[in-house]
Specification:
- It is a single chain.
- The radius of gyration is 22 Å and the shape is globular.
- α6 links the parallel β4 and β5.
- It has one domain: 3-Layer(aba) Sandwich (Rossmann fold).
- About 35% of the residues lie in helices and about 15% in strands.
- Strands 1-3-2-4-5-6-7 form a seven-stranded mixed beta sheet, with helices on both faces.
- The two termini are about 35 Å apart.
- It has about 290 residues and is of the alpha/beta class.
């Protein structure tokens, strides 16, 4: 697993800067898969939306294959889910944020969700930060699982400065490019954690054996108590599944997106044999899967 993470940390930045970006697939519109939780009915639509972003080499289907969808469904949350097929080609072409907004999150928000949360791992963890910076007003919170946060040289620089809070960040970049996006994302994270800029609730999860843990610890040091989840795992789906379980049981999403308990059943006895009772309520609707 160390070898896999090392390969990822070298390959991803190389591909993002590669002139071969045009050869990587990035279909328009961006495809996605949708699921509705068991708590969602026609009369009680979900109050929250969770958007999954895949890691390098994964796709939208992997969230169902690896139990993420089932885990959310077990939590009795008032949540709908959509997994975006946000593969490497979108990042390499610079179209990730635009396509995710236009093809996935925009249409979903039109259904009236009160909260929108992003959950992504590895490259998708990077995507949660990248998108939240660009569309701060639209995102309630993010859960970045083992996010890729930049090259070793930049991580060394922030570490040697004494951490993110002491790092001398560059001026705000108005436009993200392949050359400046890593520094700009760290600048934005610094500004948000200091309260100098608006931002969503930021949650972080990673395995202590993950090679990306060193960079993740720099961010964890600036987050509020209860916003970081760490276990003994590495850079893999079992680790992320366990971290997701923790997040879904003790986070703002868990608190604010909890399904309302069913109302009490009122029974009235007739006053005499001639009393007429009103018909019972109709049976609740059945949840549907997208």
């Amino acid at each position: 697993m160390y070898a896999l993470t090392r390969w990822f940390s070298v390959l991803l930045p190389a591909l993002l800067l590669c002139a071969c970006a045009g050869l990587l697939p990035a279909p328009t519109p961006m495809r996605s898969m949708q699921w509705s939780s068991a708590e969602t009915t026609a009369k009680a639509p979900a109050t929250c939306l969770v958007v999954f972003l895949p890691g390098l080499g994964d796709n939208a289907q992997d969230f169902e294959r690896n139990g993420f969808v089932a885990e959310v469904e077990r939590q009795e949350l008032s949540v709908d889910m959509v997994a975006a097929d946000a593969t490497l080609g979108y990042y390499a072409r610079g179209s990730f944020a635009q396509r995710l907004a236009t093809d996935v999150i925009g249409p979903a928000r039109a259904r009236g969700y009160r909260q929108v949360w992003l959950v992504g791992m590895s490259m998708g963890g990077l995507g949660t930060v990248y998108y939240a910076r660009a569309h701060t007003a639209d995102i309630t919170g993010i859960f970045a699982l083992a996010p890729y946060l930049g090259k070793r040289g930049l991580i060394d620089e922030i570490t040697e400065a004494g951490g993110l809070s002491r790092w001398h960040a560059p001026a705000k970049a108005q436009t993200l490019t392949k050359k400046n996006y890593q520094r700009e994302l760290w600048r934005w994270l610094q500004a948000v954690t200091r309260g100098e800029e608006r931002g969503p609730a930021i949650y972080l999860g990673y395995g202590s054996s993950d090679k990306l843990a060193r960079a993740n610890r720099l961010l964890a040091a600036e987050l509020p108590d209860g916003h970081t989840f760490v276990n003994d795992g590495a850079h893999d789906w079992p680790t992320w599944s366990a971290l997701l379980r923790q997040f879904l049981s003790s986070s703002a999403l868990a608190r604010d997106c909890r399904a309302a308990p069913p109302g009490p059943v009122l029974e009235t006895a007739p006053t005499d044999e001639r009393a007429i009772t009103s018909p019972g309520s109709p049976a609740p609707g059945t949840a549907t899967r997208g």
